[in-house]
Model the fold of this input.
Amino acid sequence: MATSFKSIPIIDIAPLLAKWDDPKMAEDVGVGEVVKQLDQACRETGFFYVKGHGVSESLMNEVRSMAHKFFNLPCEEKLKIKMTPAAGYRGYEKVKENITKGVPDLVEAVDFFKEIKKGTYGKFGEVMAGHNQWPADPPNFKTKMEEYFSHCTDVSRKIMRGIALAWGGKPDEFEGERGGDAFWIVRVSGYPGLSLPDAQQNEIGCGMHTDYGLLTLINQDDDITALEVRNLSGEWIPATPIPGTFVCNIGDMLKIWSNGLYKATLHRVINNSPKYRVSLGYFFEGNVDAVVEPLEVCVKKCGGNRLNERAIYGEHLVNKLINNYVAM
Done:
């Protein structure tokens, strides 16, 4: 659970990535240090930076640059990939079409989901079935973004192996029926700056919330501090950009699987800069049909006391999707 932290820790996960598929990874000293830091960060802040993740800084910069170019297009061009329920909630949303706790957000965005076929997961899977919508401009947008998404999936899966070890579980706790076919969401977000007409100081780009999956990787512009994390004392701690790192945070489903050992931390985005800000949020989830309930290894760590929460991940996600947008 979040404490009255004043800063967000930085974790070098390179030793974890180097041994991720080693059957004896849990015995490695370097892995053990990373696992210890992950556990502490998940318990105390719910947020942490990661470096040594293996995703090139040039690719991280390139996808943000492409996002800037897309958002700079005329509105009619962006609306060619407009999000609709019929498109499986994939595509472009104009400023203030996304809602957080009933309040429209000062952000425009493009959402991409892992593509799934109709009928794969029954009734609730139908809402998410479909294909991503890709803009024709900028050129190579689809190719570069898909390359980037693949890297994020790989990094997330390996971080989750470290988190599983932190509980005293097996590295593959989040493989198989829990996350072997993990769903993912990417939100490419653009936050207008104060230079726009009618812009106001401290206007909310994205309202206070917790993420509803397992793990989030945030790739944000290097020169604007806008993401803020709330500590237990109610103070807002800035997640100041550190070039080449991801800002990571844990979500609500991890709270359930951890039996409450870890809890998602409230955060928000306020862009008080005169400059337009871009971020890419990669959300690593469980399998669409995963049953989310406390793991026995975590229940034991809590003295046998079991958290009275349970969810089917896909049902949970669909409920969020249909309530997150202005009527379309």
About this structure: The chain is about 30% helix and 20% strand. The chain has a mean pLDDT of 91.
